[in-house]
Design a protein that fits this description.
Shape: elongated
Oligomer: single chain
CATH superfamily of the largest domain: Probable inorganic polyphosphate/atp-NAD kinase, domain 1
Mean pLDDT: 87
CATH topology of the largest domain: Rossmann fold
Order of helices and strands: EHHHEHEHEHEHEHEHEHEEHEEHEHEHEE
Strand order of the largest sheet: 10-9-8-11-13-15-16-14-12
Distance between the termini: 26 Å
Number of domains: 2
Strand content: 15-25%
């Protein structure tokens, strides 16, 4: 029987839908903006798939850091190891990880984002493998399953487990909120490895041809954008190039909306987008996958939520990416938090990759028996 250290960061991901680009140091502001915790629901998806596995025994934390969710999903094969009081903090995560280490766990399973990954790796290092159920805003580190279902599949997939080295990245959140992606390597963890089930670390492409390619995409999109149609522009430099070609300044790491060549709203949150699109007859969403990871939804753009996508319609989503990025991103992923909606994207999607050029790319879908 494998011993699994399990913990949840109860506030992970709260800043995403409300446009804060991260939750570290912004929990109270997230709550003031009406944010709701994401991690408990995402952890439930994973645990519900593991509850009938007799080979897993969980060591966990009190309350919302683990015990509550285990109980709600019907898992009784666990023991409470760490108790906390008040609101959980980064220090609680580190203390819990140290308790897991002393108990000799085979793996630490956590639900959170990059900050939670760093806290756990800070204690576990390479001594114990770690695996993240993605629930944060960005999740640029490579220790996360592609979605909660994949996290369960990774734990059940092979016996014995096989492992790989996975980058843990340190993202400067203040710079990120200001529109600058500043990432450094925090460490290299060990994670379970099944191809297609665990994400890659974020990559930023800086080749000279990239700017030319983005310009070609922008020129083509400028030609085909329709009048009296609202365009929601996701984060990234490719969508920024489109905005520049239109003649407006975009929030680099935020979500903006334009119509008839004018900015309608900048750095929008989920509520603003929903209020906006309810009064529009025609709406399109233009998004670009995260380099190397391949996520078109669910990483860094949670403002474009499942509710927003359902209102606009999957058929009205336009994906753009340079040929170089696509060469490094053979499969695309969708993680809206709604498995049914994820499946509506089908098994492939067209990606605008140049001036009047497009490539069809596979979208990962779980195999359901």
């Amino acid at each position: 029987m494998k011993k699994i250290g399990f913990l949840i960061n109860p506030v992970a991901g709260m800043g995403g839908a409300v446009g804060l680009k991260g939750t570290d140091g912004k929990v109270e502001e997230s709550r003031r903006r009406g944010a709701e915790p994401q991690s408990r629901n995402r952890a439930k998806i994973t645990l519900s798939l593991l509850k009938n596995n007799p080979d897993l025994f969980f060591l966990t934390c009190s309350g919302e850091m683990g015990e509550t969710i285990l109980h709600e999903t019907g898992i009784s094969n666990y023991r409470l190891l760490y108790k906390y009081t008040g609101n959980s903090t980064s220090e609680d995560t580190k203390k819990a990880a140290s308790y897991f280490m002393k108990e000799g766990v085979d793996l630490i399973l956590f639900c959170g984002g990059d900050g939670t990954a760093r806290d756990i790796f800070d204690i576990a290092g390479r001594n114990v493998p770690i695996l993240g159920i993605p629930a944060g805003v960005k999740m640029y580190s490579a220790v996360f399953a592609i979605d909660p279902v994949a996290a369960a599949e990774l734990l059940m997939g092979t016996d014995p487990w096989s492992f790989r080295d996975s980058d843990v990245l340190d993202i400067n959140e203040e710079r990120y909120r200001a529109g600058e992606l500043s990432a450094r390597l925090f460490g290299v963890a060990r994670t379970p490895a099944i191809p297609g089930k665990i994400q890659e670390s974020k990559q930023v492409f800086e080749e000279q041809d990239e700017e030319r390619a983005k310009g070609e995409i922008a020129s083509f999109m400028h030609e085909v954008m329709l009048p009296d149609t609202l365009y929601i522009l996701g984060a990234g430099t490719t969508t920024e190039s489109i905005a520049s070609r239109i003649g407006v300044k975009k929030t680099l790491l935020g979500v903006d909306a334009v119509k008839n060549g004018q900015i309608v709203v900048q750095d929008a949150d989920e509520k603003t987008l929903l209020d906006l699109i309810r009064n529009e007859k025609e709406v399109r969403i233009i998004i670009s996958p995260i380099g190397a990871q391949g996520f078109i939804l669910g990483r860094g753009n949670q403002q474009i939520s499942a509710s927003v996508v359902r209102h606009v319609g999957v058929k009205n989503i336009i994906v753009v990416a340079t040929s170089h990025k696509l060469r490094e991103t053979p499969v695309l992923y969708v993680d809206t938090g709604d498995p049914t909606l994820n499946r509506e994207f089908g098994d492939s999607i067209q990606v605008i990759s140049g001036y009047r050029m497009a490539q069809r790319r596979k979208i990962f879908q779980h195999v359901h028996e």
